[in-house]
Amino acid sequence: MAISLTKKEEIINWYYSKDGTQMGPFELNNLINQIDGNTMVWREGIEWTTARLVPELSLHFPAEKVSSAIVNNTNTASFQMSASNDVVSEPQKMFAAPFSFDGRIRRTEYGISLIIYVFAASLINSIAKGAPILGLCYIPLLWFFWAQGAKRCHDRDASGWYQIIPFYAFWMLFAAGENAPNQYGNSPK
Length: 189
Known about the structure:
The chain has helices at 28-32, 55-58, 68-73, 107-128, 138-155, 168-174; strands at residues 14-18, 21-26, 40-43, 49-50, 79-81, 87-89. By secondary structure, the protein is an alpha+beta fold. The protein folds into two domains: 14-89, no CATH class; 92-189, no CATH class. The strands form two sheets. A four-stranded antiparallel β-sheet has the order 2-1-3-4. The chain has a two-stranded antiparallel sheet with strand order 5-6. Helix 4 runs antiparallel to helix 5 (138-155). Residues 64-88 have low confidence and may be disordered.
């Protein structure tokens, strides 16, 4: 009679995000049945990231089925593998897409955008006195400012429409954004 002593494997709990709600814990086999390659996932030892980018999950999701959400995020954040095979996101570059309403930006980028807006609006205002047609230059300037404001609202996990609330710009300037991914994308930090 031989007694077999096997070391019990450690169970890794996985979580995923569905409509901004954390779901889990799940074991790996159960997780695979409930997500696709574009779902945000987390386990101890990695940051929240897209399932397709996690080594343990990437084999289950072919690369050719990349969604538009992933394609749109490639210009704002890139990913690299660390020595321990954990997925780590690099910070996004400032002013990567200044006229886009998609994504998230940090307080610093919003503050610089506000300074650019005030300076450019003053310049256009002084120039447009002599040639009123130059007042049309306000259109792209407003588009830039509203887009940056919407992305800053997204960093606070709020709709871009929040920026029309009086004095909400102060909240966007001084309140910290969320560190984890939210419904608007990965953290810009």
